[in-house]
């Protein structure tokens, strides 16, 4: 039998939106071009400090674009809104509610991811509760989340050896440092600023990630 790494899917690019979207029409045009590259495997709507009505309006506007490109849209923090807008899932932090309640709201065909920082214990708990993926981080200093808990990439290889549940690496990931996380066992790298703040724009950024992860 071939070794399991020989059959492994390439590491996917999991994109987080900016925390605020000032011009939704313009953002949708940009997102359409970014997703048309085929490089992004998952999008998370991660709006912070906005009213629920803005999250709902934005999610409803992004869902058709994501689905046109066959990219699932997950909501950050809010299983209730994910259920209301029929999004493809939710990402829960340790303070964002439990997996069982989210599963009740969303049903079994939606994805639930859980932040596990640098803790295998939290990851096993999330897996046992029915999470579809666990997220470890922060692997590098992040301008998006300046006080994130640091994580060591060895947690990715350990997780990859002991379970079949997907793991996402997050935190300060760039085209220059993503390869080492993929080689350590990350199934997805989750990225925000390195795409939206790239000097040549977000479409060029995802192309550079594609080359780095190939
Ligand atoms: C894929 C992914 N991993 C981790 C996080 C962080 O979630 P959380 O700890 O709840 O922090 P906020 O994103 O809510 O600030 C994430 N969003 N996505
Ligand atoms: C939202 C988030 N969570 C993190 C964690 O460690 O749990 S790091 C992070 C920020 C990710 O954005 P960027 O790619 O700009 O660093
Ligand atoms: Mg959260």
From TrEMBL:
Reaction catalysed by this enzyme: 4-methyl-5-(2-phosphooxyethyl)-thiazole + 4-amino-2-methyl-5-(diphosphooxymethyl)pyrimidine + H(+) = thiamine phosphate + diphosphate; 2-(2-carboxy-4-methylthiazol-5-yl)ethyl phosphate + 4-amino-2-methyl-5-(diphosphooxymethyl)pyrimidine + 2 H(+) = thiamine phosphate + CO2 + diphosphate; 2-[(2R,5Z)-2-carboxy-4-methylthiazol-5(2H)-ylidene]ethyl phosphate + 4-amino-2-methyl-5-(diphosphooxymethyl)pyrimidine + 2 H(+) = thiamine phosphate + CO2 + diphosphate
Origin superkingdom: Bacteria
Coiled-coil portions: none
Required cofactor names: Mg(2+)
Stated name of the protein: Thiamine-phosphate synthase
GO molecular function, a single term: thiamine-phosphate diphosphorylase activity
Ranges for domain Thiamine phosphate synthase/TenI: 13-195
The protein's enzyme class: transferase
Pfam families in UniProt: TMP-TENI
PANTHER family for this protein: THIAMINE-PHOSPHATE PYROPHOSPHORYLASE (PTHR20857), THIAMINE-PHOSPHATE SYNTHASE (PTHR20857:SF15)
Phylogenetic placement of the source organism: Bacteria, Pseudomonadati, Pseudomonadota, Alphaproteobacteria, Kordiimonadales
């Amino acid at each position: 039998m071939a070794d399991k790494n020989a059959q492994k899917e390439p590491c996917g690019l999991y994109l987080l939106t900016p925390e605020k979207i000032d011009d939704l029409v313009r953002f949708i045009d940009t997102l359409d071009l970014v997703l048309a590259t085929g490089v992004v495997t998952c999008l998370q709507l991660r709006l912070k400090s906005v009213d629920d009505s803005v999250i709902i309006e934005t999610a409803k506007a992004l869902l058709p674009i994501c689905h046109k490109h066959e990219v699932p849209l997950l909501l950050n923090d809010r299983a209730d809104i994910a259920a209301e807008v029929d999004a493809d899932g939710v990402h829960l932090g340790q303070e964002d509610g439990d997996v069982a309640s989210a599963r009740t709201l969303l049903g079994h065909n939606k994805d639930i991811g859980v932040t596990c920082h640098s803790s295998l214990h939290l990851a096993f708990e999330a897996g046992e509760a029915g999470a579809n993926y666990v997220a470890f981080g922060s692997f590098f200093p992040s301008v998006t989340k300046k006080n994130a808990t640091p994580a060591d990439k060895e947690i990715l290889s350990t997780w990859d050896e002991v379970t079949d549940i997907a793991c996402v690496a997050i935190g300060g990931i760039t085209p220059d440092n993503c390869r080492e996380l993929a080689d350590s066992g990350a199934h997805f790298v989750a990225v925000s600023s390195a795409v939206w703040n790239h000097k040549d724009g977000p479409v060029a950024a995802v192309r550079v990630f594609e080359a780095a992860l190939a």
